[in-house]
Input
Amino acid sequence: MPVPSEGVFDRTSPLPEGVPRQVGFFFGGGLDCPGERAKPQIVLAAEPVIPSEFLLCVYGFRAGRVTLTIRPPAGKAGTATLRGGNGGESGWEYRYPLRPGAPAGDYRITARQGSRTATATIAVTYPETPRLWLDRPGGCLKPGDDVHIYLAGFPAGRTVMLNLYRMHDYQTSFPATTDAYGSGHAILRVDPGTGFNQWGVSHPALGDTVGMPYDPIVEGRISGNVFCTEAPPAKD
Output
């Protein structure tokens, strides 16, 4: 486990050569599992690579409880209960983390509600190109919270400088060291006094959009490697 980096959010650095001044990030909005489907089914809504989390959209069940079972290619099966109703506008959502060390191969998924079932098989792989995944608590982060940043597909045995953006604008950089397989792990700890803001993490090798995401001339993918920090509580 790497030592958390502290003081990063308060730091402002000159723009390094080859690093874009702005990157297009998606900070949320809309439904992750939109629409309705009468037939029970499970739909994958994100590419399943290690490290990341795949988003499962579960459709075609009545309001109530749906039992979801995930059987990885090695190790024990996991079970989760999806509760409530889908409101008629979207499916149930379930996010399954694929942290470093998770087995590649076929993940077999079953959703069940009484006699109604849906199944899916998802092939999980290791990436052949650089990838980044942020694993963090839900909601905006408080001082002392950690953001775990996992890398894969980078050159082996290197120090990779990752770039922190405040909203879309470059703020500073911080290091992550890759192992013999090109994987790495860095931790950012939220500093006291960071305040409310939206943040993104990027690297030029990821192919993220350079510029603002609503600019029609930009190219690349809109990155979802984002998180937010909350304002400190008001003093009495």
In short: The chain has a mean pLDDT of 87.
